[in-house]
Amino acid sequence: MASGEDDDPIIEEIDVYLAKSLAENLYLLQYPVRPSTMNYDDVNHLAAKIKPKQQRLELEMAMDTMSPNYCRSKGEQIALNVDGTTYDESNTYSVKMMDKQTFSSIQATTNTSRYAAAVFRKGELHITPLTGILQMRPSFSYLDKADGKTREREAENEGGDSSQDEAEEDAKAITVRFARPESEQARQRRIQSYEFLQKKHAEEPWVHLRYHGLKDSRSEHERQYMYCQSVDSSQNSELVKTPKEYLTMLMPPQTEEKIVQPAGPSNVLSMAQLRTLPLAEQIKTLMRNVKLMPFANLMGLLASGTDSTAVLRCIQQVALLVQGNWVVKSDVLYPKNTCSAHSGVPAEVLCRGRDFVIWRFTLERSVMRKEIAAVIKLPPEDVKEFLEHVAVPRVNRGWEFMLPTDREFTKKHPDIAHRQNMLWMGIQSKLEKVFNFTKEDFMPKNSPQPDPVHISGEQRLKMAQERAQASQATLKKELAAKKGQKGDCDVEPMDTSPSHIPNGSMNGDIDHANGNGGASSSSELTDFVRNIFRKHFVLTLSEFKRLFGLHLASKPAGQVVIQSMSDYMLQNTILHNNCRQIHVPFPAQTTLAADEQKVFGLWDSGEELDQHRRALYELFSKNYRIKRTLFQTRLSQEFGDVPKTDVDRLLKVNDVPKKGVLFTKHIPYPTGENCET
Questions:
Q1: How far apart are CA 668 and CA 677, in angstroms?
Q2: pLDDT per residue as tens digits for the range 493-552
Q3: How far apart (Å, rounded) are the C-alpha atoms in residues 563 and 560?
Q4: Which pLDDT does position 554 carry in this prediction?
Q5: Where is the composition biased (Polar residues) (predicted)?
Q6: Residue 393, helix vs strand vs coil
Q7: Which of the residues 50, 522, 554, 580 has the least number of beta carbons within 10 Å of its own beta carbon?
Q8: Residue 415 class from Cβ within 10 Å (0-12 exposed, 13-18 middle, 19+ buried)?
C-alpha cells in the first residue's frame, strides 16, 4: 500500500464551492442539428419566451437574407404562403420574405440532479446545479399557418351553399343526454390521456424574456452569480465522508434513473420497451392497441426468433379468430368495473354487444349498422366504436370486414381453427339467450337449389353458346319492333366463339316451364332499366348489376324467368332506353375494376332538367371531379340565370354532395382520393 501511494502522489488540492444563486434558473442549451464550430453567438436574437414548469423555450433568430447561401425566391414563396398578399400587423414575416426562424426546445433528460455547470478561478472550482438541459431544434410552425391559409381560401371559394347547409342543420333533430357521474377509474384514464396532457400544457402562459448577447454587460453581471458569494470557511464544513460513501455520491446507482418516467400518455409504449415485457404481455399490449391483426403481422412485430407455437398459445388467451384473422377479446378492451367513455354503459353490457358484432363477421363479410343497433340496443357511439375496431364503411354495402380472409392460416393450423369454431359456437349460444335470436335469422335467404348435376366442360360450353345466341336474337327482335323495323336491328353482333364468351354474366333461376322465357326476361330487364334510372339517374355497371341481382333475389321462387345475362347485353339494354355512357377520365393510378369505371346516365327523361343534367355529364366527361361553382358558372353561361332551387334539385336527384367535390355516390371514388377537396 505504501509503494502504491508513492506512485500516485497528490499534485494539487482544489477547493470546490457550491454556488446557489442561479440554481433555479440555469439551463444548458444544445443545438444537435448545428456543428459546434457554427454557433449562434453573433446571430441577432429577435425574441425569446419560456414556460418554466414545462421547461419549454422558444428563440426567434434573424436570418441573413443577403447571404449567398440564401434562396431569395424560396423565402418569398414561403412568406406568400404564410401571410398571403395582404399586409397586416399580425403577419409572420413583415418584409414579405422569410427573414427569421424559430427554435423550439425539448428536454434532453428529465433528471438533472447529476449535472452542473462549473467555472474555475484562482485555484477554486465553483459549481452551479443545472435546472434543465434543453435541445433547440428548428420549428416549422409556419407550415401549419400556410395550411390554414389554404383551407380558408378554399372555404371562401366553396361558400356558395352555406344558407342551404344552415337550413338543413336547423331541421336536424337534437338528442339530449345527461352525463353520468364520472367514476374514479374514468377520471384517472382521462387525466392520463394525451388530450388532457396537451390541454394542460397549453394552459401554462408564456413568459417573455429579453435576450442579452455573450459580451453584453448584463451577461457579464449575471455570470458573476456562478461564483459562490460566501467563501467564509466557518460556514463551509469539511467533507467527513468515507471514500466509499464519497464514490457513491459521485456515481449514484443507475436504479434511481429508472424511477423517473417520461411525461406522456399511459398507453404509448415504444418497441424497445415492449420487448422488455413477457411474451404474453407483449401480445396483449399489441392486440389491445391494434385490435385486428393477421398472424403473420403479429410475428413480424415480435422479436426475431420468437417461437410461433408459444405465440399461438398466448394469442388465444387474448383474441378470437375471425375469418382467419385475430380480433382482440371484448373483456380485454373493457375490463370489469369499467364503463363506456361515450355513454357510461357498464363493461358487461359492452362486451355482450361487441361479441355480437364480431360474431356477425364470422358469418358474412358485411353487416348493416341498423341491424346491429336493433339487436344489441346500445347507444350509436358505442355501436360505431365496435364496428370501427374491425370494419370500414362502404357505400351501399354497410360495414365491410377490414382485412381479407386469411385462408392460408386456417389451412396451416386446422386444429386451432376447429377449436376457435367450437368456441364461437359457445359464444353464439350465450348470445342467442341474451338477445333472443337464432343463427338462421342472419343467414342469407337463398332459394332452394336443385341437386347438382355433373356436366362435362364441352356440354357447358355448348349450353353457354346456345343461351347467348338465343338471348341476342331475342334482344334484336325487341329492338327491331320498337323501331318499327322488320329486318335486322342496328346492333353489333355478339361473338359467341369459345374464346370470346363474356365472363361477367349474371345468372338467375331459369323457369323451364315457361316456353317464352327469353322474351319475358328481356321485357323484365327493359322495365327494370327504365325504373332504376328514373330513380338513380347515374349508375356504374357494377352498381347496376348489384341492384339487378337484388331485384332478382326479391322475387318469389319459381317466378324468376331471367336467363343468363352478359355484361354486353346489359349495356345494350341500358343504352337503348334513353341512357348514354359517360366516359369519366379516372386517374391512371386508380384501382377500380372495369365495370366500376363504366358509368351510365339517364339522357332523356322528358323533364326540363334534362339539358342541365347533360351539361353536368359533359363536365364529368372532362374531369372525374368538379366543384359546385364550376357547374353553376356553366349553367349561367349556357342557360342564363338558373334558379338555385333547380340546381339544388338536380344535385340532390343525382346524389351529389353539397360540400366539396361534385361526384355521384354511385360512382366509386378512386382509391387514395379525398372527396372533400
A1: 16
A2: 433 333 333 333 444 333 333 334 455 556 777 888 888 887 778 888 888 888 877 777
A3: 9
A4: 67
A5: 496-506
A6: strand
A7: 554
A8: exposed
User: Rounded distance, CA 333 to CA 341, Å?
Assistant: 12
Q: What is the rounded distance in angstroms from the CA atom of residue 594 to the CA atom of residue 502?
A: 13
Distance CA 641, CA 244 (A): 95
Buried b (16+ CB within 10 A) or exposed e, 309-338: eebbebbbebbbbbbbbbbbbbeebbeeeb
SS3 content of the chain, % helix, strand, coil (to 5): 45, 15, 40
pLDDT confidence bin for 652, thresholds 50/70/90: low
Beta strands in 87-206 (DSSP E): 100-107, 116-121, 124-129, 132-139
Q: Which three cell numbers stand for residue 259?
A: 424511477
Residue at 635: amino acid letter: L
- The Cα–Cα gap between 333 and 287 comes to 9
Where are the extended beta strands (E) located within 199-304? 207-209, 292-293
The total number of residues written for the chain in this structure: 677
C-alpha cell at 470: 338465343
Segments in 67-193 forming alpha helices (H): 72-83, 141-157, 162-171, 184-191
- Cα gap 352→472, rounded to integer Å: 54
Which helix (H) or strand (E) segment is 398 a member of?
strand 398-401
Listed in sequence order, the residues at least 6 apart from 498 whose beta carbon sits closer than 8 Å to its beta carbon are 461, 465
Q: How far apart are CA 442 and CA 428, in angstroms?
A: 12
Contact 550, 528 (CB under 8 A): no
Q: Are 149 and 82 spatial neighbours (Cβ–Cβ below 8 Å)?
A: yes
Which cell is 236 given?
Answer: 463551509
Angle between the N-to-C axes of helices 517-536 and 457-483, in degrees from 0 to 180, rounded to the nearest 10: 70
Report the alpha-carbon angle 149-648-654, nearest 5. Answer: 100
3-state secondary structure of 548: helix
Question: In whole angstroms, what is the distance from residue 62 CA to residue 43 CA?
Answer: 7
Q: At what angle do helices 141-157 and 72-83 cross, to 10 degrees?
A: 50
Cβ 64 vs Cβ 76: under 8 Å: no
Q: Is the separation of the CB atoms in 366 and 396 below 8 Å?
A: no
The secondary structure element, H or E, covering residue 391 is: strand 391-394
Distances in whole angstroms, Cα of residue 517 to Cα of each of 463, 468, 547, 577: 16, 13, 21, 21
| Selected residue with higher pLDDT from 666 and 224 | 224
Q: Which candidate, 356, 354, 365, 380, places its Cα nearest to that of 325?
A: 365
Grid cell 382521462 — which residue? 190
Question: 136 and 59 in contact (C-beta within 8 Å)?
Answer: yes
**Strand 27-30 versus strand 132-139 pairing type:** parallel
Report the C-alpha gap between 653 and 666 in whole angstroms: 12
